[in-house]
Amino acid sequence: MHPCRVLFICTGNSARSILSEATLNHLGKGRFEAFSAGSQPTGRVNPYALEELASAGISTENLSSKSWDRFVDDGAPPLDIVITVCDSAAKEPCPVLFGDFVRSHWGLSDPASVHGNAVVISQAFQHAHTIITYRLMALLNLPVESMTRDELQHALDHIGTIGDDEDDLT
């Protein structure tokens, strides 16, 4: 069986989806293969996302802000899971991608929308990355290879709530 292929999608593909892609590739070590994309990519990865990943010892090589078009074209890698990471609570538009894969929504506030000095912004990226890491650890603990689509869907939807309550992270 090929690695479980996961696509993280948001609008700009500069922060949350990039953090998710790099972290899952780092933690998944061949069992998972992660990608990220945006419906309206910014064209650049947020430097605070790169700084956060580097400080966690996660490679930033080959990360880029890209369109989801490359995942629906002929020759695109087959996907098993697609996860949107936009913040619907902030009325941020969530992209929709169609295909034969399990979909889930892991809403998360956009650290790139935080205003303030460098310390405040770095803290926002660190907080977002902490939530992402907790969620990805829960994903890594799933026996995805033997789960039914319904079981996987239910588990992914539950994982998407981790971090909604700050007590989840203690």
UniProtKB/TrEMBL annotation:
Organism: Dyella dinghuensis
Superkingdom to which the source organism belongs: Bacteria
Name of the molecule in the record: Arsenate reductase ArsC
Annotated Phosphotyrosine protein phosphatase I domain residues: 4-142
Gene Ontology biological process terms from the UniProt entry: response to arsenic-containing substance
UniProt xrefs under SMART domains: LMWPc (SM00226)
InterPro entries (alphabetical): Ptyr_pPase (IPR023485), Ptyr_pPase_sf (IPR036196)
UniProt keyword terms in alphabetical order: Arsenical resistance
